[in-house]
Amino acid sequence: MTKIHFDYLEKHMYFVKTEVPEPLFRIELADLLEKGHADRFVEQYGPVLKAMKPEVAATYFSLWFAWVCAALQYTISHHDAAYNLSLHNLSGQVYLVDNRPRWAFHLHNSDSLSVPAGDRNEWRKHVLSSFYTEEVSPLLGSVAAVVGISAGQLWGQLATRLHYAYDTWQKEAETAQLRHTIEEDFAFLRYGLAAEVFGRKKNPFDIQFRHIDNPRIPGETLRIKASCCLAYLTDTGHGYCYSCPRMGEEERMEQRMKIEASLLLSGK
Fold first, then answer.
1. Least enclosed by CB within 10 Å: which of 137, 214, 220, 221?
2. Going by DSSP bridges, is the β-strand pair 221-223/211-213 parallel, antiparallel, or unpaired?
């Protein structure tokens, strides 16, 4: 059987082999499909984020859950295998690191793997289609409904994060063959799955991002996010992200100048 190096998921995608001791709270992800549980989750998570509106809990959750989606894409490309990432096989714990909330995703059963028994392309299509149709689409729809926002805003968080994950994997790839496999698999996610798989009018990963200069790394660019994460609606003084799609160009330039000035002061 194909062996997946779980250490990578643990280090980069917030998966854990055992549950986190003394989390702020814990939730079975399948419970979020039920309105009562989803309501209680928002009530628990919002104060942890210092959210001023309940929809912040939804956008931040989708941003973290994107790592589950990334884990699936990663294992398909790097190991020709996939864990059972059904919601019934996943729990999430929220805990603090340096006084900041972080998620940990725990697989109840990590022994059962899906691997290509015949045609790899058909296997990949089945794994991704069933995951997004049966797990992700209902989950995001449920969480969006309880806070009264469009599920599209949550899909935007997933898509932005997975595009960045794809960039990282391409840079890390040690062989041209692996780089090609990563590219093909991500292209299939982006272009090969029908909108109906996601319960949307368009495949949410098929995005043409606008790019802006990265003020922290000269010569590099950042994507303007596919949707706003609502960080400005937290009582943290965060304000709008530099790559927020809601930010006007003048405001973005002002923030860029502040970032560059702070880097000069810090000597970076």
1. 220
2. antiparallel
